[in-house]
Design brief:
By secondary structure, the protein is α+β, with helices and mostly antiparallel strands. About 15% of the residues lie in helices and about 25% in strands. It is found in: Cell membrane.
């Protein structure tokens, strides 16, 4: 079967396509048939009677998309070599669009497209052709598959699928700074012609921005973009297909470019001077006023700090973090009378300065804050303000002048001041003060020895406004006058030996004087006039010597202690006695505790009797009760010992009486009872939680004549041919391990050695 592609006015294009694609086909017949649009038939090859094979020209057709004609569009023709034009061949097609989009003339094999095709929706259709006998409907040849391709035309414009676009660029960026990239898509066939080749251009905003023709990257076209002047730009970017040639389709999109801020503007005070007023009585820290500097930048670039360049001795400034205002407040007290106006220079500085923009200038600004201090009515001020110290002789007369205090009204009016003494500080009214002059005079006689200083408080008030008051401390020192005679330091009593020699020192005396002369004390001693005629004694001024001790009584008298010293000595002795008693009590208490602990500790109690005596009959050498009562243990509190459990000495004695007549057999039975007794005791000890888990080992080593008891020596037991078996002791646990070792059967080799 031969496929032909002839379609009216599209024949030249179809012929080109056929010629360009013939290389992909294969010719297996020596003769091929062809047909043109006029239906002419040409034959090539030999005209012999040999069998003619089918010749395949091509297996695909082309149809142009977006056909707008009124008649069905001719696609092509299929033909078989066996068709001789007699009308006995029927052509059919099947597959995609067969019978709906594509129809075939059964007689001629012409294929037409009945619908308008769009390559962007479906680029090709796969169909199958069949030649059948018209009468029998039998296939004359195998079914042949072919493809109808929809040929592209430039019918789709470029589209910006991701638009609208929003980008950003920092202000003052250099020319050529990349902002963003836009991309347009064209649905046409990129492998056919230039229908899908897109180029970009700027329709609106090309003064400030450009776009790369091929990549769609938008860049800055100027270097002086200023956010404070214009903070955003809207561009119109166009994309054109056919590589921008005439007749190409185009699409456009809007691009919004936001200009971001940089710190290129310094802070600026709207005014060069601000005026505020504050009272001179305002407390420290009181806000005077607020000023603010503006910054044309935004965000963190507007953060600023304030500082005082001049006037910082009386005022301070802080920054309100919420409002970015400078708060000027009082640092030290103000005085209207000293200075009524203060000029404070406040400076605003940007916190975040971009080092790339330092060439633009200083990022700071200054303004003057003028503060006017208003006057208030203030209380009087004492001079000096810290208080006054006065002096007066103790022998001054009543009414004598002590001193004068001074106070004035600090206000401009300088109102008169009145003085008074705070009587809580001078309850005895020793001093008086003149209310007008402030002169302090004596109201009573002074005595320095009674009170050397007097501290009073003087109050000053305005004469017209007593609420305006202030106070000052006045300290008055009483100067000493020699008005007190010397006095003996203590009462003196002297004694003299009857055998004292002339010139012997009897006693020394000392005196005190309550006065305090500036040059210090110097005393002169003489005998009283009534004693000056006594020829037995003399008085020496400022001499020393050794006092004679006549006898024991005299010594005690000379060395007698004062009552205070005796009391101190007695107290020390009493403390020593108490300490000794306390130490003895503690020792006795600790000794009692140790004895109680020794009585309770029953671990490893070994009772040894290593002396030799006269046997059991000799009861004078040691106490036999310690041996006879060793097995008389108290029974367990929580266990029932059973009817067969008795103290061991009675059991042994009874067993021996019974065993004397029965012989060895009875002795063996007695040992079984012994084992049962010990096992019972072990069970009781294991069950009783109050019994300490300690082993007790006791030694029996006494000897004597006429003893009713047999020898209990373990050495004697090992040296005899005893038939006793103590192997069961090893089954009683760790506590009887040592005992089991003593009664273990000996090794023959060891015995031999």
């Amino acid at each position: 079967m031969t496929h032909f592609w002839t379609a009216g006015p599209w024949a030249p294009l179809a012929a080109l396509a056929l010629l360009s694609c013939c290389g992909f086909g294969s010719c297996e017949a020596s003769r091929t048939s062809g047909s043109t649009s006029e239906g002419n038939r040409q034959e090539q090859g030999p005209s012999s009677l040999e069998r003619v094979k089918r010749g395949w020209v091509w297996n695909q057709f082309f149809v142009v998309e977006e056909y707008t004609g009124t008649e069905p569009l001719y696609v092509g023709k299929i033909h078989t070599d066996s068709d001789e034009g007699e009308g006995n061949i029927k052509y059919t097609i099947s597959g995609e669009g067969a019978g709906s989009i594509f129809i075939i003339d059964e007689l001629t094999g012409d294929i037409h497209a009945t619908e308008r095709l769009d390559r962007e929706e479906k680029a090709f259709y796969t169909l199958r052709a069949q030649a059948r006998d018209r009468l029998s409907n039998d296939p004359l040849e195998p079914e042949s598959e072919f493809v109808i391709k929809v040929q592209d035309i430039n019918d789709s414009e470029p589209k910006f699928l991701e638009g609208p676009y929003i980008g950003s660029v920092a202000e003052l960026s250099p020319i050529g700074t990349s902002v963003m990239k836009v991309t347009a898509s064209d649905a046409d066939d990129p492998t056919y012609g230039s229908s899908a080749r897109v180029v970009y251009s700027v329709l609106d905003g090309e003064k400030f921005f450009t776009v790369d023709r091929h990549t769609g990257i938008i860049m800055t076209a100027v270097a002086d973009l200023d956010r404070e002047t214009q903070d955003r730009y809207e561009l119109v970017v166009k994309a054109t297909d056919m590589a921008g040639q005439m007749g190409g389709l185009s699409g456009s999109t809007t691009v919004t470019i936001v200009i971001t801020d940089v710190n290129d503007n310094p802070p600026r005070f709207p005014q060069k001077m601000y005026q505020f007023s504050v009272s001179e009585g305002a407390a420290m820290g009181t806000p005077v006023g607020r000023v603010i500097a503006t910054d044309a930048d935004m965000g963190d670039n507007t953060d600023m700090s304030y500082l005082i360049k001049e006037g910082g001795d009386l005022f301070k400034v802080s920054t309100d973090v919420e409002t970015q205002e400078a708060v000027v407040s009082i640092k030290k007290p103000l005085d209207f009378e000293s200075k009524r106006t203060h000029n404070v220079v406040v400076e605003a500085v940007n916190k975040h300065v971009d080092p790339r923009l330092v060439d633009l200038g200083s990022f700071r600004d200054q303004t003057i804050v003028r503060v006017s201090v208003s006057d208030i009515d203030e209380p009087p001020i004492f001079q000096p303000a810290e208080g006054t110290i006065m002096e007066v002789q103790e022998d001054a007369k009543v009414g004598a002048l002590v001193g004068v205090v001074t106070a004035r009204d600090p206000d401009v009016k300088n109102k008169p001041v009145r003085f008074s003494i705070d009587r809580t500080t001078d309850q005895e009214m020793i001093f008086h003060i003149d209310p007008d002059s402030g002169a302090i005079t004596l109201g009573k006689i002074l005595d320095r020895e009674t009170a050397g200083w007097h501290n009073i408080t003087v109050k000053a008030v305005e004469a017209e406004n007593h609420t305006m008051a202030s106070h000052s401390a006045v300290s008055i020192r009483i100067l000493d006058v020699n008005d007190n005679p010397p006095e003996l330091a203590t009462p003196y009593e002297a004694s003299i030996c009857e055998d004292a020699k002339p010139g012997q020192l009897i006693h020394t005396i000392s005196v005190v004087d309550r006065d305090e002369p500036q040059t210090g004390h110097r005393f002169y001693f003489t005998l009283a006039p009534e004693a000056s005629s006594n020829r037995h004694f003399t008085l020496w001024d400022v001499k020393e010597g050794a006092i004679q001790s006549c006898n024991a009584t005299a010594y005690v008298m000379s060395a007698a202690l004062s009552p205070g010293a005796l009391i101190a000595l007695l107290v020390c002795m009493l403390i020593l006695i108490v300490l000794v008693l306390l130490i003895l009590t503690l020792k006795r208490h600790r000794k009692g505790q140790r004895m109680a602990e020794d009585e309770e500790d029953m671990r490893d109690n070994v009772i040894k009797y290593n002396d030799e005596g006269g046997g059991e009959q000799d009861t004078q050498a040691y106490d036999m009760s310690a041996l006879r009562n060793l097995y008389d243990f108290p029974e367990a509190k929580s266990c029932d010992p059973g009817p067969d459990l008795r103290p061991l000495p009675q059991w042994v004695q009874a067993s021996r009486v019974a065993g004397g007549a029965e012989g060895p057999a009875a002795a063996m039975a007695d040992f079984s009872q012994f084992k049962g007794y010990i096992r019972k005791k072990v069970e009781q000890a294991d069950a009783d939680l109050s019994v300490p888990p300690y082993d007790s080992f006791q030694t029996y080593a006494f000897e004597g004549s006429s003893s009713p008891a047999l020898s209990l020596s373990s050495i004697h037991t090992l040296s005899t041919a005893s038939e006793q078996d103590f192997s069961y002791l090893s089954d009683w646990g760790p506590r009887f391990r040592q005992l089991a070792g003593y009664y273990a059967p000996g090794n023959p080799e060891e015995e031999g050695s």
